[in-house]
Amino acid sequence: MNKGLTTGTEPSKLVEIIPAGARVLWVASTGGHLEQLVRMASNVESDPASSWITFDSHQSKSLLRGRNVVNVPYVKPRDFKAAFHAARIVAPIITKDSYDVCVSTGAALASSILPLARIRGLRTIYVESVSRTEGPSLTGRLMRAFPGISTYTQHRTWAKGGWRQLQSLLEEWKPVSVLPKTGSLKLFVTLGTIKPYRFDRAVDSILSLLRPGDEVVWQLGATTRSDLPGETHSEIPASQVLTTALWADVVITHAGVGSILSLLDVGICPILAVRDRDHNEHVDGHQSQIATAMVSRKLAYRLDLSEPRRDPLYSAAATKIEPQAQ
Question: What is the share, in percent, of the chain residues with pLDDT greater than 70?
Protein backbone atom coordinates (compact mmCIF):
# COMPACT_ATOMS: atom_id res chain seq x y z
CA MET A 1 0.00 0.00 0.00
CA ASN A 2 3.08 2.22 -0.02
CA LYS A 3 2.47 5.32 -2.16
CA GLY A 4 5.99 6.46 -2.93
CA LEU A 5 6.72 9.24 -0.50
CA THR A 6 8.96 12.02 -1.75
CA THR A 7 12.34 12.72 -0.14
CA GLY A 8 13.52 16.23 -1.01
CA THR A 9 16.90 17.18 0.34
CA GLU A 10 15.69 20.10 2.48
CA PRO A 11 11.89 20.24 2.42
CA SER A 12 10.49 23.33 4.09
CA LYS A 13 7.35 21.67 5.48
CA LEU A 14 6.09 18.22 6.34
CA VAL A 15 3.52 18.51 3.52
CA GLU A 16 6.45 18.31 1.08
CA ILE A 17 7.48 14.94 2.51
CA ILE A 18 4.11 13.21 2.79
CA PRO A 19 2.01 13.04 -0.40
CA ALA A 20 -1.74 13.63 -0.47
CA GLY A 21 -3.75 10.53 0.33
CA ALA A 22 -1.10 8.79 2.42
CA ARG A 23 -2.47 6.91 5.40
CA VAL A 24 -0.44 8.19 8.35
CA LEU A 25 0.11 6.90 11.85
CA TRP A 26 0.78 10.06 13.90
CA VAL A 27 2.61 9.42 17.19
CA ALA A 28 3.36 11.92 19.97
CA SER A 29 3.41 12.29 23.73
CA THR A 30 1.01 14.94 25.00
CA GLY A 31 2.23 18.48 25.65
CA GLY A 32 4.48 20.29 23.21
CA HIS A 33 5.18 17.17 21.15
CA LEU A 34 1.51 16.66 20.34
CA GLU A 35 0.94 20.39 19.80
CA GLN A 36 3.71 20.52 17.20
CA LEU A 37 2.61 17.37 15.40
CA VAL A 38 -0.98 18.56 15.12
CA ARG A 39 0.23 21.82 13.58
CA MET A 40 2.46 20.04 11.08
CA ALA A 41 -0.27 17.56 10.21
CA SER A 42 -2.81 20.32 9.53
CA ASN A 43 -1.24 21.02 6.12
CA VAL A 44 -0.94 17.37 5.13
CA GLU A 45 -3.82 15.98 3.06
CA SER A 46 -3.63 12.55 4.64
CA ASP A 47 -6.15 9.76 4.29
CA PRO A 48 -9.13 10.21 6.68
CA ALA A 49 -8.35 6.69 7.95
CA SER A 50 -5.08 7.97 9.45
CA SER A 51 -4.72 7.46 13.21
CA TRP A 52 -3.15 9.12 16.23
CA ILE A 53 -1.34 7.43 19.12
CA THR A 54 -0.99 9.49 22.29
CA PHE A 55 -2.09 9.75 25.94
CA ASP A 56 -5.61 10.44 27.19
CA SER A 57 -5.66 14.05 28.47
CA HIS A 58 -7.65 17.27 28.25
CA GLN A 59 -5.23 18.43 25.56
CA SER A 60 -5.46 15.32 23.38
CA LYS A 61 -9.26 15.25 23.64
CA SER A 62 -9.41 18.88 22.53
CA LEU A 63 -6.81 18.77 19.75
CA LEU A 64 -7.84 15.41 18.29
CA ARG A 65 -11.63 15.64 18.54
CA GLY A 66 -13.24 13.80 15.63
CA ARG A 67 -10.08 11.92 14.64
CA ASN A 68 -9.09 8.27 14.99
CA VAL A 69 -7.22 8.04 18.29
CA VAL A 70 -5.55 5.15 20.09
CA ASN A 71 -4.80 6.08 23.69
CA VAL A 72 -1.96 4.38 25.54
CA PRO A 73 -1.04 4.69 29.24
CA TYR A 74 1.03 7.75 30.16
CA VAL A 75 4.78 7.35 29.65
CA LYS A 76 6.92 9.75 31.65
CA PRO A 77 10.12 11.09 30.04
CA ARG A 78 12.82 8.43 29.56
CA ASP A 79 10.65 5.63 30.95
CA PHE A 80 11.62 3.20 28.22
CA LYS A 81 9.98 0.22 29.93
CA ALA A 82 6.60 1.99 29.81
CA ALA A 83 7.30 3.07 26.22
CA PHE A 84 7.91 -0.55 25.26
CA HIS A 85 4.61 -1.49 26.91
CA ALA A 86 2.83 1.19 24.86
CA ALA A 87 4.35 -0.23 21.68
CA ARG A 88 3.05 -3.69 22.55
CA ILE A 89 -0.46 -2.27 22.92
CA VAL A 90 -0.47 -0.73 19.44
CA ALA A 91 1.61 -3.43 17.70
CA PRO A 92 -1.45 -5.21 16.22
CA ILE A 93 -2.43 -2.15 14.16
CA ILE A 94 1.05 -1.35 12.85
CA THR A 95 1.47 -3.11 9.51
CA LYS A 96 2.60 -1.90 6.11
CA ASP A 97 -0.83 -2.82 4.74
CA SER A 98 -2.56 -0.56 7.30
CA TYR A 99 -0.44 2.60 7.00
CA ASP A 100 1.98 4.16 4.57
CA VAL A 101 4.04 6.20 6.99
CA CYS A 102 4.58 6.70 10.72
CA VAL A 103 5.47 10.23 11.89
CA SER A 104 6.46 11.37 15.38
CA THR A 105 7.70 14.47 17.17
CA GLY A 106 8.57 12.46 20.30
CA ALA A 107 9.11 12.04 23.08
CA ALA A 108 9.14 8.66 24.81
CA LEU A 109 6.48 7.15 22.54
CA ALA A 110 8.70 7.69 19.51
CA SER A 111 11.49 5.65 21.08
CA SER A 112 9.50 2.42 20.86
CA ILE A 113 6.79 2.92 18.25
CA LEU A 114 8.91 4.34 15.40
CA PRO A 115 11.38 1.43 15.45
CA LEU A 116 8.46 -1.02 15.54
CA ALA A 117 6.82 0.73 12.59
CA ARG A 118 10.07 0.63 10.64
CA ILE A 119 10.55 -3.07 11.35
CA ARG A 120 6.98 -3.67 10.14
CA GLY A 121 7.81 -2.00 6.82
CA LEU A 122 6.43 1.52 7.22
CA ARG A 123 8.24 4.63 6.09
CA THR A 124 9.19 6.36 9.37
CA ILE A 125 9.85 10.06 10.05
CA TYR A 126 11.04 11.67 13.26
CA VAL A 127 10.87 15.47 13.63
CA GLU A 128 12.84 16.89 16.55
CA SER A 129 11.07 19.42 18.77
CA VAL A 130 11.55 23.10 17.98
CA SER A 131 12.79 23.44 21.57
CA ARG A 132 16.00 21.60 20.63
CA THR A 133 17.97 24.52 19.24
CA GLU A 134 21.44 23.09 19.92
CA GLY A 135 21.09 19.45 18.93
CA PRO A 136 18.88 16.38 19.24
CA SER A 137 17.26 15.01 22.36
CA LEU A 138 18.02 11.55 23.70
CA THR A 139 15.04 10.23 21.74
CA GLY A 140 16.33 12.02 18.65
CA ARG A 141 19.74 10.43 19.00
CA LEU A 142 18.16 7.01 19.36
CA MET A 143 16.01 7.55 16.26
CA ARG A 144 19.00 8.76 14.24
CA ALA A 145 20.89 5.59 15.17
CA PHE A 146 18.06 3.26 14.13
CA PRO A 147 18.42 2.13 10.50
CA GLY A 148 15.88 3.55 8.09
CA ILE A 149 14.28 6.26 10.22
CA SER A 150 14.41 9.69 8.53
CA THR A 151 15.29 12.46 10.98
CA TYR A 152 14.53 16.19 10.72
CA THR A 153 15.44 19.29 12.72
CA GLN A 154 13.68 22.66 12.80
CA HIS A 155 16.99 24.51 13.12
CA ARG A 156 19.42 25.18 10.28
CA THR A 157 22.39 25.40 12.68
CA TRP A 158 22.52 21.65 13.22
CA ALA A 159 20.94 20.35 10.01
CA LYS A 160 23.81 17.98 9.26
CA GLY A 161 25.03 14.47 9.99
CA GLY A 162 21.85 12.87 8.70
CA TRP A 163 19.51 15.58 10.04
CA ARG A 164 17.57 17.47 7.37
CA GLN A 165 15.81 20.78 7.96
CA LEU A 166 12.13 21.62 8.26
CA GLN A 167 10.82 25.15 8.59
CA SER A 168 10.74 26.20 12.25
CA LEU A 169 7.31 26.75 13.76
CA LEU A 170 8.70 29.91 15.37
CA GLU A 171 9.01 31.61 11.97
CA GLU A 172 5.23 32.11 11.89
CA TRP A 173 5.02 35.15 14.23
CA LYS A 174 6.35 38.67 14.91
CA PRO A 175 6.08 41.05 17.94
CA VAL A 176 4.14 44.34 17.80
CA SER A 177 4.08 47.06 20.48
CA VAL A 178 0.73 48.07 22.00
CA LEU A 179 -0.35 50.52 24.72
CA PRO A 180 1.56 49.97 27.99
CA LYS A 181 -0.11 48.62 31.13
CA THR A 182 0.52 50.05 34.61
CA GLY A 183 -0.59 49.29 38.17
CA SER A 184 -2.27 46.05 39.22
CA LEU A 185 -2.30 43.08 36.86
CA LYS A 186 -4.43 40.07 36.04
CA LEU A 187 -2.06 37.10 35.80
CA PHE A 188 -2.50 33.59 34.49
CA VAL A 189 0.20 31.16 35.60
CA THR A 190 0.35 27.84 33.74
CA LEU A 191 3.08 25.37 34.70
CA GLY A 192 2.16 22.56 32.34
CA THR A 193 1.08 19.04 33.24
CA ILE A 194 4.32 17.08 32.90
CA LYS A 195 4.58 14.42 35.60
CA PRO A 196 6.11 13.99 38.13
CA TYR A 197 8.06 17.26 37.99
CA ARG A 198 7.17 20.03 40.43
CA PHE A 199 8.05 23.67 39.78
CA ASP A 200 8.01 25.36 43.18
CA ARG A 201 10.80 27.78 42.23
CA ALA A 202 8.51 29.39 39.68
CA VAL A 203 5.60 29.60 42.12
CA ASP A 204 7.74 31.18 44.82
CA SER A 205 9.24 33.67 42.37
CA ILE A 206 5.81 34.72 41.14
CA LEU A 207 4.51 35.07 44.69
CA SER A 208 7.33 37.53 45.39
CA LEU A 209 6.18 39.68 42.46
CA LEU A 210 2.52 40.00 43.41
CA ARG A 211 1.19 43.36 44.59
CA PRO A 212 -2.13 44.41 46.20
CA GLY A 213 -4.86 44.44 43.57
CA ASP A 214 -3.32 41.71 41.41
CA GLU A 215 -5.60 38.83 40.40
CA VAL A 216 -4.12 35.39 39.74
CA VAL A 217 -5.30 32.12 38.22
CA TRP A 218 -2.92 29.18 38.65
CA GLN A 219 -2.71 25.98 36.57
CA LEU A 220 -0.21 23.98 38.65
CA GLY A 221 0.10 20.48 37.19
CA ALA A 222 2.18 18.39 39.61
CA THR A 223 3.07 21.42 41.75
CA THR A 224 0.35 20.97 44.36
CA ARG A 225 0.15 23.96 46.73
CA SER A 226 -2.30 25.19 49.38
CA ASP A 227 -0.71 28.58 50.11
CA LEU A 228 -1.60 30.51 46.97
CA PRO A 229 -3.81 33.57 46.49
CA GLY A 230 -6.41 33.55 43.74
CA GLU A 231 -7.89 30.58 41.86
CA THR A 232 -5.94 27.32 41.66
CA HIS A 233 -6.29 24.26 39.39
CA SER A 234 -4.18 21.17 38.81
CA GLU A 235 -5.23 20.93 35.15
CA ILE A 236 -7.50 23.03 32.96
CA PRO A 237 -9.12 21.98 29.63
CA ALA A 238 -7.37 23.46 26.60
CA SER A 239 -10.33 25.67 25.65
CA GLN A 240 -10.49 27.11 29.17
CA VAL A 241 -6.73 27.69 29.20
CA LEU A 242 -7.03 30.01 26.21
CA THR A 243 -10.08 31.76 27.66
CA THR A 244 -8.17 32.42 30.86
CA ALA A 245 -5.07 33.53 28.94
CA LEU A 246 -7.11 36.10 27.01
CA TRP A 247 -8.63 37.36 30.28
CA ALA A 248 -5.17 38.01 31.73
CA ASP A 249 -2.92 41.01 31.23
CA VAL A 250 0.11 38.73 31.57
CA VAL A 251 0.59 34.99 31.09
CA ILE A 252 3.49 33.30 32.87
CA THR A 253 4.16 29.82 31.54
CA HIS A 254 6.81 27.17 31.93
CA ALA A 255 8.89 27.08 28.74
CA GLY A 256 6.99 24.14 27.27
CA VAL A 257 6.57 24.29 23.51
CA GLY A 258 2.87 23.38 23.58
CA SER A 259 2.05 26.20 25.97
CA ILE A 260 4.19 28.69 24.05
CA LEU A 261 2.70 27.94 20.63
CA SER A 262 -0.86 28.12 21.91
CA LEU A 263 -0.22 31.55 23.42
CA LEU A 264 1.45 32.91 20.29
CA ASP A 265 -1.58 31.76 18.30
CA VAL A 266 -3.88 34.09 20.26
CA GLY A 267 -1.50 37.05 20.16
CA ILE A 268 0.00 36.72 23.65
CA CYS A 269 3.64 37.50 24.41
CA PRO A 270 4.36 35.17 27.37
CA ILE A 271 6.71 35.34 30.31
CA LEU A 272 8.78 32.15 30.39
CA ALA A 273 9.71 30.38 33.62
CA VAL A 274 12.39 27.86 32.67
CA ARG A 275 12.51 24.41 34.25
CA ASP A 276 16.00 23.22 35.25
CA ARG A 277 17.26 19.66 35.47
CA ASP A 278 19.58 20.58 38.36
CA HIS A 279 16.50 21.46 40.43
CA ASN A 280 14.72 18.23 39.41
CA GLU A 281 12.18 20.17 37.34
CA HIS A 282 12.69 18.31 34.05
CA VAL A 283 14.83 15.60 32.45
CA ASP A 284 17.27 18.06 30.86
CA GLY A 285 17.86 21.72 29.99
CA HIS A 286 15.96 21.98 26.72
CA GLN A 287 13.53 24.58 28.12
CA SER A 288 16.42 27.01 28.39
CA GLN A 289 17.12 26.47 24.69
CA ILE A 290 13.59 27.31 23.55
CA ALA A 291 13.44 30.27 25.94
CA THR A 292 16.63 31.70 24.44
CA ALA A 293 15.23 31.26 20.92
CA MET A 294 11.94 32.93 21.90
CA VAL A 295 13.59 35.90 23.61
CA SER A 296 16.01 36.41 20.70
CA ARG A 297 12.99 36.70 18.37
CA LYS A 298 11.30 39.07 20.87
CA LEU A 299 8.35 36.68 21.05
CA ALA A 300 8.63 36.28 24.84
CA TYR A 301 10.31 37.55 28.00
CA ARG A 302 12.11 35.39 30.55
CA LEU A 303 11.39 35.36 34.28
CA ASP A 304 14.59 35.42 36.34
CA LEU A 305 13.84 32.82 39.02
CA SER A 306 16.80 33.85 41.17
CA GLU A 307 16.10 37.59 41.12
CA PRO A 308 12.51 38.05 39.88
CA ARG A 309 11.51 41.53 38.71
CA ARG A 310 8.13 42.97 37.84
CA ASP A 311 9.35 45.02 34.84
CA PRO A 312 9.17 42.11 32.34
CA LEU A 313 5.50 41.64 33.23
CA TYR A 314 4.68 45.14 31.99
CA SER A 315 6.89 44.66 28.91
CA ALA A 316 5.03 41.48 27.97
CA ALA A 317 1.67 43.18 28.56
CA ALA A 318 2.72 45.90 26.10
CA THR A 319 3.59 43.40 23.34
CA LYS A 320 1.20 41.70 20.96
CA ILE A 321 2.14 38.76 18.76
CA GLU A 322 0.95 38.76 15.15
CA PRO A 323 1.36 36.29 12.25
CA GLN A 324 4.18 36.92 9.82
CA ALA A 325 3.08 37.94 6.32
CA GLN A 326 3.26 34.93 4.06
Answer: 96
